[in-house]
Amino acid sequence: MKNFVYQNPTKLVFGKGQIAKLSELIPKEKKVMITFGGGSVKKNGVYDQVATALAGHQYIEFWGIEPNPSVETVREAVALGREHGVDFLLAVGGGSVLDGTKLIAATLGAREKIDPWSIVQKGFAPEAIPFASVMTLPATGSEMNSGAVISRKETNEKYAFGGNYPEFSILDPETTYSLPSTQIANGLSDVFVHVVEQYMTTPGQSRVMDRWAEGILLTLLDIAPKIKEDPKNYDVMADFMLSATLALNDMIQMGVTQDWATHMLGHELTALTGIAHGASLAIVYPAMLRVLKEQKHDKLLQYAERVFGITTGSEEERIDKAIEATEAYFKSLGLATHLSEAGIGEDIIAEVERRFTERGIKVGEGRNVDGKMARKVLESCK
Ligand code: NZQ
Ligand code: ZN
């Protein structure tokens, strides 16, 4: 196990009716800006619950943080926040609303008046004003981590940066009942790939991290068909929400190497074509496994046995079956697993290769996913 420091300061407030707790979780003297997406919260009653809870607080609202939040929108929110002297942000919505809010918080918290894109370019925000969330979509884990992914429409770029953690996040599984099936599928894909990006690497680093990761993967395989059957089953949606949080709140990455090559490729596909994040991962991940199966050989065997119960056949056959089972999981969610199904062609493959090479990107636990390898992976899921 490698050395590590673990500190996650986010308070998780979980369960039915917990949005009402906002009134006590946010100090009365704070000047709050509540940030929203495109309006889903007005239809499902979440907005009303938030407004009721904060009736005694001073707050303004900012609407319109879009999926794959853009720096252009963040600039507008920063201007409004500065104008009103805002000193606390509350994101209400999915991962995009929260990620956009993390960048607003970092920009408003910076000592000097800076442009938010400079924070994204630097990749790290040392300061931020406090922020929190009411999360309505299980997927990103953003509710309990310090990362955010921001797009720049002008140049079709998309990058992650790290900064502060939310002060608290409220997760009420009932808020997920209004999710369209495509968002549920994208979320189930994203959570699965978060786990494997921290698991499918070097074997034998930590028994407890392995078991924890396998526990989340097994939970996802168990709940995915149940969610399809009944997306308003409270207990199943509660496990979905908690799995999303645990998959990316630093808990399964203690002392182990990480991959993230699939995410880097997926972000480029989204930046260039607009494909949803979870959908991009469902295409890239099985291909990544096919291309890197030698490198990931031992962990793939462990995964085959412990996650899919594959114990018969030669090592090669077991590994191939595990990769097929992984692809079958994404397909069972109704997601495409080939670029052609998503209308993505050779021009995009060439551009992703060019960007990886130009930026000198080398990702994955072996630091060997570069431009050439990116092409190989994308060729393998054409
Ligand atoms: O905008 P509104 O109207 O709220 O609608 C949203 C949006 O259209 C809708 N939605 C959210 N909750 C709903 C709902 N509709 C009905 N009922 C509800 N309860 O869902 C749509 C998609 O929302 P979005 O926030 O974009 O989805 P998600 O949570 O999957 O976030 C995706 C973004 O997060 C980034 C992705 O790259 C992408 O930009 N990621 C962030 C990470 C992080 N911060 O740690 C890690 C991830 O790997 C990921 O990269
Ligand atoms: Zn993700």
Can you walk me through this structure?
This protein is 49% helix and 11% strand. It is an alpha/beta fold and 382 residues long. The protein folds into two domains: 11-175, Rossmann fold, CATH 3.40.50.1970; 181-380, Dehydroquinate synthase-like, alpha domain. Strand 6 (147-152) and strand 7 form a beta hairpin. Helix 7 (181-199) packs antiparallel against helix 8 (207-229) and helix 8 (207-229) crosses helix 12 (297-308). It starts with 10 loop residues before the first strand and ends with a helix. The structure holds 5,6-dihydroxy-NADP and zinc ion. The site of 5,6-dihydroxy-NADP has 35 residues, from helix 2, helix 5, strand 6 and helix 7.
Any chance you could write out the topology, listing elements then pairs?
Elements: E1 11-14, H1 22-25, E2 31-36, H2 40-43, H3 46-53, E3 58-62, H4 71-84, E4 88-93, H5 95-109, H6 116-122, E5 131-135, E6 147-152, E7 157-162, E8 168-171, H7 181-199, H8 207-229, H9 234-247, H10 261-273, H11 277-291, H12 297-308, H13 315-332, H14 346-359, H15 371-379
Parallel strand pairs: 1-8, 2-3, 2-4, 4-5, 5-8
Antiparallel strand pairs: 6-7
The chain binds 5,6-dihydroxy-NADP and zinc ion.
Record keyword descriptors for this entry:
two-stranded antiparallel sheet; Rossmann fold; Dehydroquinate synthase-like, alpha domain; binds zinc ion; binds 5,6-dihydroxy-NADP; six-stranded parallel sheet; 382 residues
